[in-house]
Amino acid sequence: MTRPVRVVVADDSPFICKLMSSYLQSSPDIEVVGTALNGKRAIKLVQELRPDAVTLDLEMPGMHGLEVLEYIMHECPTPVIIISGVSGKGAAITLSALELGAVDFILKYTPGVDTNAEALRQEIIDKVRTGSTIKMIRSLRTGQAQRSLRQSGPELTAISPVPIVETPEVGQTQPNRQELTPYLPGGVIVIGASTGGPMAVRDLLKCLPVDFPGAIIVVQHIPASFTQVLAAQLNRQVPLTVKEATADDCLKPGLVLVAPGDYHLLLQPSARVELNQGPEIMGHRPSIDVTMQSVAQIYGSRTTGVVLTGMGSDGSQGLVAIRAKGGKTFAQDTATSVVSGMPQRAVEKGVVDRVGSPSEIGKFLMHVSRFRN
Fold first, then answer.
1. Residue 314 is among the residues annotated as catalytic for this protein
2. How far apart are CA 139 and CA 99, in angstroms?
3. Is 194 a catalytic residue?
4. For the structural domain made of 177-372, what CATH number should be given?
């Protein structure tokens, strides 16, 4: 008989600990071996019980969740799934937790949205089950947790909803593509990522110079309240200019546009961004496939597709479309992926030109852009 996944649940709320435990133990292959109401207790349980995974609330008394996470990653590396709030500050701290080594996160509350208890239960089970299979590497103690707390800053103000741009009906007259589509020396690169993506995207973009001749679109599976924070963090960390995409943004060399959460990002013939809230594709909005297919229709062989770490198969069909137009395709290798599902599905389809780490893919992109230029 297969041993169950052993989990420690850490949250300052006894109610949440009980709820999380009931969700997890509703699955016969998961066992909650301990619960902690503060950070020190969480560390003690991890040291003593050596669980397969930990769910960790970041707002903990005594020791902040980031400090707990940093200690665990150094002393007894264990897959940690963050229980996150949806505010701007919560998003910033959660992204910092991913930098420190957390493998994934779960939103505990979305204001104004009726929570589907069954969907939440299944998400928690799936992420803990997947997270428990990830082999963790001991980190160095750098004091990054304290820096992350200082840098998380005040709450971000609410972001106004992005206007929905209607997609033209089939058969509607389109402008002449040759006259309107701007020439981009390095073409257009679409990078798709899911679980583990923020750090992989950062490592890739760090390899590209400020004068990179291509335009870049990042499609990351992430909640809507996180996208602006992710773009702002990347903008501070990489040489290129990074911003959350808005309707009618225009692609430019050296500009990185991050698709906003809960919106599909398509490209108009004029190379302007179109956002819509069409149906989710395989449970995702934004969908990597949708963006890649849209860009390939406009830029053809000057399109490059990159699929990074993540669960599922989003991006595979997008790479098929790019390949069909003569574009280049890359996927992250299994060794550096937090979860290798998405890149591996693309490789299995036979539509990937090169496989490598995010930094190696960055070097591939430099070669491709120079060749196009």
1. yes
2. 11
3. yes
4. 3.40.50.180
